[in-house]
Write a structure and sequence with these properties.
Blueprint (H helix, E strand, L loop, with lengths): L8 E4 L4 H10 L6 E5 L14 E5 L5 H8 L4 E4 L13 H18 L4 E5 L11 H16 L5 E7 L2 E2 L6 H10 L2 E4 L5 E2 L2 E2 H11 L8 E6 L4 E2 H12 L4 E4 L2 H11 L9 H6 L10 E2 L4 H9 L1 H14 L4
Parallel strand pairs: 1-2, 1-4, 2-3, 4-5, 5-6, 6-11, 7-10, 8-13, 11-14
Antiparallel strand pairs: 9-12
Helix pairs in contact: 1-6, 2-3, 3-4, 5-7, 7-10, 10-11
Amino acid sequence: MMMQKLGKVTILGGTGFIGSQLAIKLSKLSSNIDVLTRNAESNQSLKMIPNLEIRQIDVTDERNLNLCFKDSDLVINTIGILNELDEDNTFDNIHHELAKKLTKALNANNIKRYLHMSSLNANPNAPSKYLQSKGLAENYIEDNLREFCNYTIFRPSIVFGEKDSFFNKFSTLLKILPIFPLACPESKFMPIYVNDLTEFMIDCILNRETFNKKIDATGPREYTFRQLIDLTLKSLQIKRLIIPLNYTLSKLQAQVFQILPGKLFTVDNFKSLQIDSVSSTGFKGSSLVENIVPRYLNASYSQRHFEKLRKKSGRK
């Protein structure tokens, strides 16, 4: 990937799964990367990058945003939550209200380029609060940023990779549970590999054709939820009894799991699954789930895969 050098880049949520990938790649294109996070200790590997600074701040405070955005040429927001944690960390606060504060800070600091991480199916009229809040954030950005800043909104399906929260979560559960009741087994997804997504995002930075656009981002193939669970089992090389649940039982499972520690599955998650996470437009990554996921879910698989590559290269 060839690209001209960038000025100061500020990444919100830069210690997270997607944000950290962007931070590492952009550190080769910018002499100054600022990563804003609520937990500076959550990603130790980033501390090894000499031109990257991790700032532990409350990004919901507009004063902090104004201070950290000073002299930035590019701001990227990768912050998002899948479940509401408490009265402060609600979907509306973290997605919609934060978008408002970001817009004001971008304007105050005369920043001309902004990348925003949203979600496929984001819409104020969607069935879940998660998708509603993402949709409200998109609408606010479209209505208020265009006049002074060129934005691009990315709307991915499931994003997978070594430290993802999808395959790793279900891998842990499947290792423990001999019988696995699966809610919404026919819900559809088009998972995109984190490397494909982040490469595309970086390619968009200077691409004027992507300015002030919303872009769906998916992988090349469609899968049902059940197919992804089966693929996880195959990657782990274990067998489990999977019991597909109908609509009523899926909703009941969400109601029960929602009150358990960890919130593995909530009613809002259930509502999000009522819309297939697929798209026929936008960016299509090339990496297939079945070629990538086994490499990080199963250590023995990874070793065998490495041995095959070594033999093909003629090494002993």
